[in-house]
Amino acid sequence: MSSKERILAEINQLSENDLQALQHWLQSRNSPEPAKGNLSFFERLRKIRIDAPPDFGENFNQYRFGEKRVEDPH
Predict the structure, then answer these.
(1) pTM over 0.70
(2) Which end of the chain has fewer CB atoms at under 10 Å, N or C?
(3) Would you give the DSSP letter of residue 38?
(4) Taking phi first (over 0 means left), then psi (-120 to 50 degrees means alpha), and beta for anything else, what does residue 12 get?
Protein backbone atom coordinates (compact mmCIF):
# COMPACT_ATOMS: atom_id res chain seq x y z
CA MET A 1 0.00 0.00 0.00
CA SER A 2 1.41 3.40 -0.97
CA SER A 3 1.72 6.35 1.38
CA LYS A 4 -1.12 8.08 -0.43
CA GLU A 5 -3.39 5.04 0.02
CA ARG A 6 -2.53 4.83 3.74
CA ILE A 7 -3.25 8.54 4.20
CA LEU A 8 -6.56 8.27 2.35
CA ALA A 9 -7.54 5.27 4.49
CA GLU A 10 -6.86 7.32 7.64
CA ILE A 11 -8.80 10.30 6.24
CA ASN A 12 -11.78 8.06 5.51
CA GLN A 13 -11.97 7.20 9.22
CA LEU A 14 -12.07 10.83 10.44
CA SER A 15 -15.22 12.43 11.82
CA GLU A 16 -16.74 15.42 10.05
CA ASN A 17 -15.33 17.77 12.73
CA ASP A 18 -11.83 16.34 12.33
CA LEU A 19 -12.12 16.61 8.55
CA GLN A 20 -13.03 20.28 8.89
CA ALA A 21 -10.07 20.85 11.21
CA LEU A 22 -7.77 19.07 8.77
CA GLN A 23 -9.10 21.14 5.88
CA HIS A 24 -8.60 24.35 7.87
CA TRP A 25 -5.06 23.30 8.75
CA LEU A 26 -4.25 22.49 5.11
CA GLN A 27 -5.63 25.82 3.95
CA SER A 28 -3.76 27.71 6.68
CA ARG A 29 -0.47 26.23 5.43
CA ASN A 30 -0.95 28.25 2.24
CA SER A 31 -1.60 31.53 4.05
CA PRO A 32 1.34 33.56 5.40
CA GLU A 33 0.16 33.84 9.02
CA PRO A 34 -3.06 32.76 10.73
CA ALA A 35 -4.95 35.50 12.54
CA LYS A 36 -4.31 35.57 16.29
CA GLY A 37 -7.05 33.78 18.20
CA ASN A 38 -7.98 31.82 15.08
CA LEU A 39 -5.63 28.87 15.50
CA SER A 40 -6.35 25.57 13.83
CA PHE A 41 -6.81 22.35 15.74
CA PHE A 42 -3.26 21.21 14.97
CA GLU A 43 -1.77 24.59 15.86
CA ARG A 44 -3.51 24.44 19.24
CA LEU A 45 -2.19 20.90 19.78
CA ARG A 46 1.37 22.12 19.17
CA LYS A 47 0.97 24.68 21.94
CA ILE A 48 0.02 22.13 24.62
CA ARG A 49 2.70 21.75 27.28
CA ILE A 50 2.58 19.21 30.10
CA ASP A 51 4.26 19.90 33.42
CA ALA A 52 5.30 16.40 34.43
CA PRO A 53 8.30 14.47 35.75
CA PRO A 54 11.03 13.60 33.22
CA ASP A 55 10.00 9.92 33.19
CA PHE A 56 6.28 10.62 32.74
CA GLY A 57 6.15 9.43 29.11
CA GLU A 58 8.07 6.24 29.77
CA ASN A 59 6.11 5.40 32.92
CA PHE A 60 2.71 6.84 31.99
CA ASN A 61 0.74 3.75 33.03
CA GLN A 62 2.49 3.61 36.41
CA TYR A 63 1.46 7.22 37.05
CA ARG A 64 -1.99 6.57 35.65
CA PHE A 65 -2.68 3.62 37.95
CA GLY A 66 -1.04 5.16 41.03
CA GLU A 67 2.04 2.92 41.15
CA LYS A 68 4.13 6.10 40.87
CA ARG A 69 3.08 9.50 42.16
CA VAL A 70 4.02 13.00 41.18
CA GLU A 71 5.47 14.53 44.30
CA ASP A 72 3.93 17.90 45.15
CA PRO A 73 6.83 20.26 46.05
CA HIS A 74 4.55 22.41 48.25
Answers:
(1) no
(2) C
(3) -
(4) alpha
> For residue 24, with 0-12 CB atoms within 10 Å meaning exposed, 13-18 middle and 19 or more buried, which class applies?
middle
Positive or negative CA dihedral for 40, 46, 59, 73? negative
SS3 label, residue 69: coil
Q: Is 63 exposed, middle or buried (0-12, 13-18, 19+ CB in 10 A)?
A: middle
Interval 51-70: pLDDT, tens:
888 898 899 999 999 999 88
* Of 42, 48, 38, nearest in space to 19 by CA: 42
**Residue positions counted in the chain:** 74
